[in-house]
Design brief:
396 residues; alpha/beta; Rossmann fold; 2 domains; 6-stranded parallel β-sheet; 14 helices; 35% helix; binds adenosine monophosphate
């Protein structure tokens, strides 16, 4: 496999799939530029090795065709500032416009293509569309991990047109290197902490983790499906009635594989879903009728923290409660801090999935954990042991 670090880009045009799906306000100003910043090392590497860069991305979920609020033209000025290079913009990502602009592109210059998803062929993975994109450049680089689990034209199909000259950018390289650390040879004890609203989203990854981890901690809304499956009272807490059997099955599987499956023992219950609710602490299986559990309790935080503290590898996906509301954030914050402490003591910690990433950022702990994955769904699928089309297309 070719590597971006050693490839000679001199006079070559590199077509880079980036993830510039950034939030814009109503004045079309970027409100969080992290995703653009994350792509800068890859872009700079191509430019400094004598190449030119053609960037392609999606932004938002346009329905059909052009929509002003999803145009990538709003990113041009900021991108030029961050790269220190001139940025040209092609009003379309396919056809004569980008082709002519690509031909005129000189080493050291950047061409940003309009939103790929203004054409439905992108998400359909159209061969013809991918061929059109491929015709613009000499080399293909995929640096968009967040879309690597999609077999879209720009994330997977296009790679077929560069049988020799295709590679990962630094972002994907780093993601894979860190996720592989917990997938392939984790230092023991290995603890996974799974939270978030639903079990259904996480069944496959939990099953996969049961073959690898020593401890599996469950928190957040998905707890109540397990507690109900074991006969506890969960009041009005969130539950997936159709997943009770699966929860029982996972408990049995954990036992047979000698994995310690740890559920919260207490929780913060509220009389309604809101920051102005009345709250109290109860046993996890004693949620009163009409009340709902919205965070793990103090005892659970300290029990979970003790396990985290003894761990050498830690994977965290999903918050322990409704951490967006102050009244229900203590559990998530406590676990985030325990992971940071364990990391300071030498553990390897990987944080992945949208909401745990948001939590780690909220508590300013992103520098205190080993790696924060930007992948979300892609990371979960990779951890489930599935082959991601965007990764396979480069490796094959
Ligand atoms: P997910 O996307 O599945 O990781 O779920 C994240 C969401 O789960 C967050 O927005 C949390 O507010 C929510 N959540 C966590 N714990 C609970 C709970 N006990 N009840 C309801 N929602 C929860």
């Amino acid at each position: 496999m070719k590597s971006i670090e050693t490839f000679d880009f001199k006079k070559k045009k590199a077509l880079i799939r980036v993830d510039f799906n950034v939030p814009l306000n109503e004045n079309h100003e970027i409100t969080d530029d992290n995703r653009i910043r994350a792509a800068i090392p890859t872009i700079k590497q191509v430019l400094s090795s004598g190449g030119s860069v053609i960037l392609m991305s999606h932004l938002g979920r346009p329905k059909t065709g052009y929509e002003e609020k999803f145009s990538l033209k709003h990113l041009v000025r900021h991108l030029s500032k961050l790269t220190g290079a001139p940025v040209k913009f092609a009003d379309d990502c396919i056809g004569n416009i980008p082709m002519e602009m690509s031909k005129a592109l000189k080493p050291g210059e950047i061409l940003l293509l309009e939103n790929l998803r203004f054409h439905k062929e992108e998400t359909k993975g159209s061969e013809e569309f991918a061929a059109g994109l491929a015709a613009l450049a000499d080399v293909y680089i995929n640096d968009a991990f967040g879309t690597a689990h999609r077999a879209h034209a720009s994330t997977a199909i296009v790679a077929n047109y560069f049988p020799e000259d295709k590679m990962f950018g630094y972002l994907i390289e780093k993601e894979l290197e860190n996720i592989d650390k917990v997938l392939e040879d984790p230092k023991k004890p290995y603890t996974a902490i799974m939270g978030g609203a639903k079990v259904s989203d996480k069944i496959l990854i939990i099953e996969n983790l049961l073959d690898r981890v020593d401890n599996l901690i469950i928190g957040g809304g998905m707890t109540y499906t397990f507690i109900k499956a074991m006969g506890g009272n969960i009041g009005n807490s969130i539950v997936e009635e159709d997943k009770l059997d699966i929860a029982r099955d996972l408990i049995e599987k954990a036992k047979s594989k000698n994995v310690r499956l740890v559920l919260p023992t207490d929780n913060i219950v509220a009389d309604k879903f809101g920051n102005d609710a009345s709250v109290k602490e109860t046993g996890i299986d004693q949620v009163p009728e009409g009340w709902l559990g919205l965070d793990i309790g103090k005892k659970s935080v300290s029990e979970f923290s003790a396990i985290i503290n003894e761990s050498k590898t830690i994977l965290w996906n999903g918050p322990m409660g409704v951490f967006e509301m102050e009244k229900f954030e203590a559990g998530t914050k406590g676990i985030a801090m325990a992971i940071a402490d364990a990391t300071a003591n030498g553990a390897f910690s990987l944080i992945g999935g949208g909401d745990s990433v948001a939590a780690i950022n909220k508590y300013n702990l992103s520098e205190k954990v080993s790696f924060v994955s930007t992948g979300g769904g892609a990371m979960l699928e990779y951890m489930e042991g599935r082959e991601l089309p965007g990764i396979a297309a480069i490796r094959s």
